[in-house]
Design brief:
CATH architecture of the largest domain: 2-Layer Sandwich
Largest sheet: 7 strands, mixed
Number of domains: 2
Structural class: alpha+beta
Strand content: 25-35%
Strand order of the largest sheet: 1-2-5-9-8-7-6
Distance between the termini: 49 Å
Number of strands: 14
Shape: globular
């Protein structure tokens, strides 16, 4: 069972969905908005949210054992869905972005971001809120975002719009929650991630620790070869050196 709340503008779909989750919202409730005044990205970053993008947050009740993989699984499932609309080689940038390889300074352009928050209503198992920001229609981005953004419309081989993408993306997020709730599926997710992972073999850094990205482990952890040998990171911000 699911239902969706649609808005023309909110401060953040994630904030609205988190508030509803704390009030006991059912799994599958989605908050969708045409624009966001203060869209949220991972690590407290802002997500620029002009008209023409798809912004939605979904309340989910996955098995707590799979929470650590939920953002990656959602990114993986969304990548699979939107690949149907484009011939571009889409990649998943650890830990939560769907990107396209490019010759930009960062080495990629971001198409979609995933943000997962976990809330704990009193007496209830942890509830996840998965927020999605997908650049669909071309829009003017501020200079600080422009060299890292790409729009599905620019890559698409058929018509795209936020309205057309809402059902497939919502379905992808729900499917991700179902997959991480299965031990067998969790093992498969780890394998699938390495097939689409962006930056393998590149020199990157995670939270300031430099190294060469080797892939992800079975729990979704990023694996770097650093000056101290092989290191694993379960959380963190992956960045590329500036030229």
């Amino acid at each position: 069972m699911s239902y969706r709340l649609h808005y023309s503008e909110v401060e953040s779909t994630q904030k609205v969905a988190i508030a509803l989750a704390k009030e006991g919202a059912i799994s599958g409730l989605a908050v969708v908005s045409a624009t966001q005044v203060s869209g949220l990205g991972r690590g407290g970053h802002s997500w620029f949210s002009p008209p023409g993008g798809l912004y939605l947050s979904v309340v989910l009740h996955p098995d707590p054992m799979g929470l650590h993989l939920l953002s990656l699984a959602a990114g993986l499932e969304i990548l699979s869905e939107i690949a149907e609309y484009t011939g571009a080689d889409l990649k998943l940038k650890w830990p939560n972005d769907v990107v396209v390889e490019s010759d930009s300074p960062s080495g990629y352009r971001k198409l979609c971001g995933v943000l997962t928050d976990v809330v704990n209503p009193a007496g209830i198992l942890p509830v996840a809120v998965v927020g999605i920001g997908l650049n669909v229609k071309r829009a003017h981005f501020p200079p600080e975002f422009a060299d890292r953004a790409v729009f599905l419309e620019e890559l698409a081989t058929r018509e795209v719009s936020p309205e057309l993408l809402e059902d497939p993306v919502f379905g992808a997020v729900v499917r991700a929650a179902e997959r991480v709730s299965s031990a067998d599926e969790r093992a498969e997710i780890g394998q699938e991630l390495n097939q689409v992972l962006w930056g393998v073999g590149r020199r990157v850094s995670i939270d300031g620790v430099p190294g060469v990205l080797r892939g992800v482990g079975p729990a979704g952890e990023a694996i770097l070869t650093t000056d101290n040998g092989q290191e694993s990171f379960w959380t963190g911000e992956l960045s590329t050196p500036r030229p």
